[in-house]
Amino acid sequence: MRTLKIMVLVFLALLTSCVSQKKYTDLENQAERYRNHLKLCENEQIIAETNLANEKNKVDKLESQLEYFKSTNTNLLERLSDLSVVSKTGAESIKKSLEALNEQNKYIKNLTSSMQRKDSLNLVLVMNLKRSLANFDDEDIAIEVKKGVVYVSISDKMLFKSGSYKISDRAKEVIGKIAQIVNDHNDLDILIEGHTDNVPIYTECMRDNWDLSVKRATSIVRLMQTEFGVQPERMTAGGRSEYLPKESNETKEGRAINRRTEIIILPKLDQFFNLLEPPK
Questions:
Q1: Is the dihedral of CA 71, 73, 76, 82 positive or negative?
Q2: Which of 17, 56, 191, 233 sits at a 20 to 30 Å CA gap from 269?
């Protein structure tokens, strides 16, 4: 963000020099765009801080539950100490309850810690991605957190020609910047999903939109592996065809939004399922 401020100041300094009216206007427009982008970054930072505060509230609630379990344990221990009023069977039952509560406490602590790490990592990823891709149009690239993972959605007009799965040179620059960031986080996996509109396609290479969406996803995966060194075992390529639209396909604008490729950055699947596994 400091870099953006410096660039704005540089543009303003250039505007004060003797230039042609056209060049003056161009520089003034560029400066205005950078000011707007700076405001956008500041707003996104405020939103990110608000999300982090909400997650902290969730953690506080979980810690309150832990305190309740600790209090319950203390009461059970007091009852267990007086075996003169508790039968042998009853004492054994209390002991098992204590063990179950202790396991539940460990599970909640681990879950809380994992949630904090995941949310912090997602925040870092989003900020780094937006900073790295700041020079590209916001209309073509969307970065957001959904369902606890980071989504980078890229329009097909930036990535491919119509009906093609050949990646453009401009797209290679975008994919390279994303690959550089995911290479810094080897503990994460990458899922590439191709999406199309509902306009039918049939060529010698593709029977339908299923083929097109899958081929576009595999093109991105292959590029990330061969040119940018992303480990292939970390990546999955998939096609969703026309069946997961973001907007209605009834309009030209809606179809343009639906034609996209999504790069989803998520925890390694085995770690994710282990996190969901309750204590035995």
A1: negative
A2: 56
Q: Which residues is 262 bridged to in the sheet? A: 153, 193
Q: Indicate the domain borders of the chain.
A: 1-132, 136-280
Residue 140 contacts residue 99 (beta carbons within 8 Å): no
Nearest 5 degrees, angle CA 264-CA 172-CA 48?
40
Which tokens hold the place of 175? 């994919």
- Cα–Cα distances (Å) from 190 to 111, 150, 223, 260, 265, in that order, read 23, 10, 13, 16, 5
**Using one digit for the tens of pLDDT, what is the confidence trace for 112-159?**
655 666 677 788 888 989 998 888 877 899 999 988 889 999 999 999
Which residue is listed with tokens 């003797």? 18
CA 111 to chain centre: 19
Statement: 136-280 belongs to CATH 3.50.4.10: no
Q: State which H helix or E strand residue 176 sits in.
A: helix 169-182
SS3 content of the chain, % helix, strand, coil (to 5): 65, 15, 25
51 token code pair: 């999300």
Q: Residue 11 above 70 pLDDT?
A: no
d(CA 84, CA 47): 59
Cα–Cα distance for residue pair 19/147, rounded to 1 Å: 51
**Distance between CA 275 and CA 110 in Å, rounded?**
8
Q: What is the pTM (predicted TM-score) of this model?
A: 0.59
Residue keyed to tokens 């608000």: 50
> Nearest Cα to 152, choosing from 186, 98, 191?
191
